[in-house]
Amino acid sequence: xxxxxxxxxxxxxxxxxxxxxxxxxxxxxxxxxxxxxxxxxxxxxxxxxxxxxxxxxxxxxxxxxxxxxxxxxxxxxxxxxxxxxxxxxxxxxxxxxxxxxxxxxxxxxxxxxxxxxxxxxxxxxxxxxxxxxxxxxxxxxxxxxxxxxxxxxxxxxxxxxxxxxxxxxxxxxxxxxxxxxxxxxxxxxxxxxxxxxxxxxxxxxxxxxxxxxxxxxxxxxxxxxxxxxxxxxxxxxxxxxxxxxxxxxxxxxxxxxxxxxxxxxxxxx
Length: 269
Prior knowledge:
By secondary structure, this protein is an alpha+beta fold. It has 8 helices and 11 strands. Helices cover 33% and strands 25% of the residues. It has a 6-stranded antiparallel beta sheet.
């Protein structure tokens, strides 16, 4: 080929045109969405659902339902500091650490999360951290062992509309190397509901600056408690978005779990 002919053909002609930033963010959102489990998750004695609505294309919130051993499932809701791409990268790191520890390591919940904290600390800048709720439900006994690391206390709605809160047991992850994770325990009876949310739910503000708050959240949960878990999370999320005019300033993430009759109770009948 002559020099004249060679110069007449652009060197980039054989390559596709570069993606725009919008293309990249749409692709990133698809990747992040695939990290979440199916919206609805059902075991013989537990019905779960989760929903995550980032305020940008990607965000720092996540939820998960993880196999924690025979007859056990871990309910997870996390919220990484910051927004957008940096938060999404840290979210993926924390999510992978948590999943790998359930897949490869044994031990109680506190020690498991202390190990996750060490790995997360090594991968993040000093100013970054994450709040996290993990509840390990044992279908045989109905017991829920949980660690609430800086999250808003989840609601437990029991029969007779009694309400309990699962208060924080430890501080956030990713800030201290010698971090110790305390845990607590409760028991779920048949029909009891757990609702865990990120602060993007309770802190959502309307155009006048009034926040959605715990009272509205509990009212919505109580009024719609008989809905399927997958419908319930969507209904509450829609109410939050409507309250703040359709645009939220933070990621909105919810996890609902409803206990069925514990497996051990069947043997007692």
